[in-house]
């Protein structure tokens, strides 16, 4: 039976470190870090994320500013808000919640954020610093995953790591961070030939594709460490029956509640093959916000 890597517990440790950092600033007479979150439109999942971010800020003493714009906002108006936040000395970090409504260019918005305030780590300057192995603001989810692996003593030197997914937000930066720690890294994706065979090579598998239950137990090398970044809502009972065969409790929840969350990895099957697995929920999900607030503190400490 694999060890469960508890993301919530690690997120709490990271948030406690941020809280102490905020206290230390205050003790030096510096103000609390300020994080501005820009939410355009009414994507329900985005509203939940933004609410969770504001609540987490309050817990650690970071001042949060929410800016809500209507779905039909013009790009020029979004640009103007970003410019204003870039110039605001009380704002250390700016996050534009993705996805943006149709008609808005998210790359243009992300590129407009000052790199010093880019707490998502998505600006090309910060991506370039990561590529060069230099310090900068790094994407929250992969950096928090690295912190989780370090906390659990996972030795990355020389191991085979497979990152499933090639997004700018998780896959690509995760691969670079693993490479920096001397892993031998493969980035696999939907077009990769014989995905199960590639995954079976992995001493560490990071799954970030957003496909519920894609990774089966038979895809894993015995003893592998599995980090499951997927957060997927499963509503179909026939899909649920396949995915949750090894997790009767989840299957029961699906039958009674009509929907349950699951990762990209079949957790119940993985528990029988892997040496350590992050669960969904309670794995990588809580770590993202902890990574974000860590970045907000870092931005504040660097800026002034
Ligand atoms: N939407 C989903 N994940 C993220 C993220 O990490 N950052 C931003 N800005 N939007 C998101």
From TrEMBL:
Assigned keywords, A-Z: Amino-acid biosynthesis, Histidine biosynthesis, Hydrolase, Methionine biosynthesis, Multifunctional enzyme, NADP, One-carbon metabolism, Oxidoreductase, Purine biosynthesis
Residues annotated as binding NADP(+): 165-167, 231
A Pfam family this chain is assigned to: THF_DHG_CYH
Domain Tetrahydrofolate dehydrogenase/cyclohydrolase NAD(P)-binding: from-to ranges: 139-303
All copies of domain Tetrahydrofolate dehydrogenase/cyclohydrolase catalytic, residue ranges: 5-120
Record flagged with keyword NADP: yes
Pathway, per record: One-carbon metabolism; tetrahydrofolate interconversion
Superkingdom as given in the UniProt entry: Bacteria
Matches recorded under CDD domains: NAD_bind_m-THF_DH_Cyclohyd
Catalytic activity, reaction form: (6R)-5,10-methenyltetrahydrofolate + H2O = (6R)-10-formyltetrahydrofolate + H(+); (6R)-5,10-methylene-5,6,7,8-tetrahydrofolate + NADP(+) = (6R)-5,10-methenyltetrahydrofolate + NADPH
EC number(s) reported in the record: 1.5.1.5, 3.5.4.9
Membership in a protein family: Belongs to the tetrahydrofolate dehydrogenase/cyclohydrolase family.
Subunit (UniProt): Homodimer.
Function statement: Catalyzes the oxidation of 5,10-methylenetetrahydrofolate to 5,10-methenyltetrahydrofolate and then the hydrolysis of 5,10-methenyltetrahydrofolate to 10-formyltetrahydrofolate.
HAMAP family, sorted: THF_DHG_CYH (MF_01576)
Protein name per UniProt: Bifunctional protein FolD
Upper classification of the organism: Bacteria, Pseudomonadati, Acidobacteriota, Holophagae, Holophagales
Gene (UniProt): folD
């Amino acid at each position: 039976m694999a060890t469960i890597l508890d993301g919530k517990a690690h997120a709490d440790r990271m948030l406690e470190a941020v809280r102490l950092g905020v206290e230390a600033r205050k003790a030096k007479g510096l103000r609390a870090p300020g994080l501005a979150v820009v939410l355009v439109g009414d994507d329900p999942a985005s509203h939940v994320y933004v609410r969770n971010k504001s609540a987490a800020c309050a817990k650690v003493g970071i001042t949060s500013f929410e800016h809500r714009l209507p779905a039909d906002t013009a790009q020029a108006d979004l640009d103007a808000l970003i410019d204003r936040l870039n110039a605001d000395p009380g704002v250390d970090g700016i996050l534009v919640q993705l996805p943006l409504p149709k008609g808005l260019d998210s790359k243009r918005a992300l590129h407009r954020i000052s790199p010093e305030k880019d707490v998502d780590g998505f600006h090309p300057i910060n991506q370039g610093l990561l590529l060069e192995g230099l310090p900068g603001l790094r994407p929250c989810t992969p950096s928090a995953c690295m912190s989780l692996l370090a906390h659990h003593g996972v030795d990355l030197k020389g191991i085979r790591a497979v990152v499933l997914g090639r997004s700018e937000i998780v896959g690509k930066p995760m691969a670079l961070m693993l490479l920096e720690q001397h892993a031998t890294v493969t980035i696999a994706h939907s077009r990769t030939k014989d995905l199960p065979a590639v995954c079976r090579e992995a001493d560490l598998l990071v799954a970030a594709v957003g496909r519920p239950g894609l990774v089966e137990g038979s895809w894993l090398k015995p003893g592998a460490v599995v980090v499951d970044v997927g957060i997927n809502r499963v509503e179909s009972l026939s899909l649920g029956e396949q995915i949750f065969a090894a997790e009767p409790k989840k299957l029961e929840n699906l039958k009674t509640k009509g929907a349950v969350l699951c990762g990209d990895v079949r957790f119940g099957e993985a528990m029988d093959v892997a040496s350590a697995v992050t669960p969904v929920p309670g794995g990588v999900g809580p770590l993202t916000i902890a990574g974000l607030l860590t970045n907000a503190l870092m931005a504040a400490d660097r800026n002034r």
